[in-house]
Amino acid sequence: MRAWLVDESARLVALDLHADDAVAQSAQIRTAVGGSAEAAYYHRATVLHVPATGARGGLSPNLAAWALACGWRTMELPYLLYGPIVITGPYGADGSTVGELPARLTAQVRTVCGTVRETMAGWRIRPPASNEAAVAELLAYTRRDLAAVN
């Protein structure tokens, strides 16, 4: 079963989770996020497994996962997401194991992560005028990407 790890630099890594073993899935997700994980819901067909410690654990912001969450919720979230984040499909009917992320959402994750990487690289050369300008730019690109892969 395929899941996706999004790190703080917007790099996307495929994870192969055990399909029918909830304990093994949970252990793999904990390893990927670096400790305890909490399930966060920003789209009905996804689960974002975020580090339980967040910012207080000294983790860096994850702008790609934050931008996806904002795009899926169609609003600017008033908080950031931190650390490496695993994205899966929703929990199954029994609630113990997660499912595969649908192909359309996988394409959205890939596209947004690529755009966030490119945008952050551009910011090194041409820094945004302000944090507000950076957020506006990132969210505009995310809305465009999500609409294009819809």
Mind sketching the topology for me?
Elements: E1 2-6, E2 12-16, H1 22-33, E3 37-40, E4 47-51, H2 63-73, E5 85-88, H3 103-125, H4 131-148
Antiparallel strand pairs: 1-2, 1-5, 3-4, 4-5
Helix pairs in contact: 2-3, 2-4, 3-4
Task: Kindly describe this structure.
- With 150 residues, this protein is an alpha+beta fold.
- It has helices spanning 22-33, 63-73, 103-125, 131-148, and strands at 2-6, 12-16, 37-40, 47-51, 85-88.
- Strands 2-1-5-4-3 form a five-stranded antiparallel β-sheet.
- Strand 3 and strand 4 (47-51) form a beta hairpin.
Gross geometry: globular
H/E topology pattern: EEHEEHEHH
- How many distinct helices? 4
N-end to C-end Cα span? 23 Å
Quaternary organisation of the protein chains = single chain
Number of strands: 5
Strand order of the largest sheet: 2-1-5-4-3
The main sheet comes to: 5 strands, antiparallel
Based on secondary structure, the structural category is: alpha+beta
Low-confidence stretches: none
Task: Label this structure with key terms.
150 residues, alpha+beta, 5-stranded antiparallel β-sheet, 4 helices
